Amino acid sequence: MHTKTMEGLTGASMNMKMLNTPFRVYKEAEQRGDTGVMERAMGYVGEFADKAGEYQKKAENGMKEDAEEAREKARSEQEEAIRKHREKREELEKRIEKSRNGDTVSISESGKAVLDEKTDAVLAGTDSSLSVEETADAIKMEPVIYTKTGESDRTESGTNISLSI
How far apart are CA 24 and CA 18, in angstroms? Predict the structure, then answer.
């Protein structure tokens, strides 16, 4: 709560309470028929009522300032939220764009040279890295079964395995 608002509400409240005393004096003077006391008491009542009105205006001005500050704060918070949302969206778009591009592979100059040699040899039909015998052996290899210890267990090609269920 703004200081002006608190001061205005307190001042208006106190002046309204203080207004009760001269008003009571006015009523007593009216019963006695003393018009001089009645006029003085009504003067005090008017003064206190005017002061209460001034404090009420002060309280209203303070409340207007409070409302303006609250609107400004809400506006700045909203702008901050929008800014953060845009940053998150831009970051997400960058991640998406990066994932679309995929992984990149870079090949060194020596790797390119080796690749060019292999490509030329394969196109010519002669791959210098494997001999014809090694290629034939690789094609003729039979399936291998590995044991729990990691050793290969080759079965004889002539053995027949049958399962009865």
Answer: 11
